[in-house]
Amino acid sequence: MRGKELVFGEPVAHWVWERVGMPCKEYAAIGLKGKEIVSGVVYTRYSPGAGIELTIASEGTTWAVPDYFRAIFAYPFKQLDCQRATAVVAAGNIKSRNLCQKLGFTMEGYLRYGFKDDDAIIYGMYRDHCRWTQ
After folding, report:
1. Which residues 6+ apart lie within 8 Å of 123 measured at CB?
2. Dihedral sign from CA coordinates of 74, 82, 42, 120
3. Fewer beta carbons within 10 angstroms: which end of the chain, N or C?
4. What pLDDT was estimated at residue 34?
């Protein structure tokens, strides 16, 4: 992550929420910052021993590096010992859907009107199948 550092907590969460519009009260967050934050992951809906939901936002492409992916998946799968991670993406957000698939998420379901103006696609990743934590 040459020239970038991991950042945590409220500044990352607010950066993500400005882009996706989904603030919540209970969360953890990990981001990647150069001069400014370029990517953030907010973890919500944690169920001990079961799973957690990830909301990801980014700008540009300089954030997409293996070390960052290892960090964002180590939190749910190694630190929290979750069995699964879930991402819910607007059906029309093709870039995010492609990112989920490239990261190793599998499409598991479809929710009509899952978002105000769009349907939602549910993606899941299981601890035993996460290539980022092997």
Report:
1. 86, 87, 88, 89, 97, 100, 101, 105, 106, 107, 108
2. positive
3. C
4. 83
